[in-house]
């Protein structure tokens, strides 16, 4: 018999109340194990929505802090991809304000274009600052970063059991609908 995503997710339906609160009865170690299975079988869109929900939840650390944590665990290509997503969502004035933190990462067309080599020069704390600025300018960035990291579920797993229970709860809601 094949993998039954619906059965696995059933226990997480109570794990997200309006997509925001983790169920206190979920064992974090179990959520980590279940997430690994669900991430392989869940539709990409559901996984992206779940990651975004965890990133914006009041049951997890602030968005920028979680981005800094994920950035610190990412490889140089993933770091560059994340920075490009974030920097594409800040105004030119905010880019100027961030210039002291990130150096000159502007491409030839005036838009940020971070390479893997440049991304290695950025610290997780600087990525956190960029994420906070991007979120202030464009709250929709949380969804874009959720989508970005849904393509890298091994990194999402580093967020821990509480965040993963939120992700699984959101996937369960999507699966049920």
Spell out the key features of this protein.
elongated; 11 helices; mainly alpha; 177 residues
Largest sheet properties: none
Question: How big is the Rg?
Answer: 17 Å
* Envelope shape: elongated
In whole angstroms, the N-to-C terminal distance is: 24 Å
Strand content: under 5%
Helix content: 55-70%
Overall strand count: 0
What ranges have pLDDT less than 50 throughout 5 or more consecutive residues?
16-23
Number of helices: 11
Briefly, what is this?
The protein is an all-alpha fold and 177 residues long.
What does this structure look like?
Mean pLDDT is 82; it is low at 16-23. Helix 3 (44-56) crosses helix 9, helix 4 runs antiparallel to helix 8 (124-137) and helix 5 (76-87) runs antiparallel to helix 9. 65% of the residues lie in helices and 0% in strands. The protein has helices at residues 5-10, 28-41, 44-56, 63-73, 76-87, 92-102, 116-119, 124-137, 141-150, 153-156, 161-176. It starts with a helix and ends with a helix. The chain has 11 helices and no strands. With 177 residues, the chain is mostly helical.
Topology:
Elements: H1 5-10, H2 28-41, H3 44-56, H4 63-73, H5 76-87, H6 92-102, H7 116-119, H8 124-137, H9 141-150, H10 153-156, H11 161-176
Helix pairs in contact: 2-11, 3-9, 3-11, 4-8, 5-9, 6-8
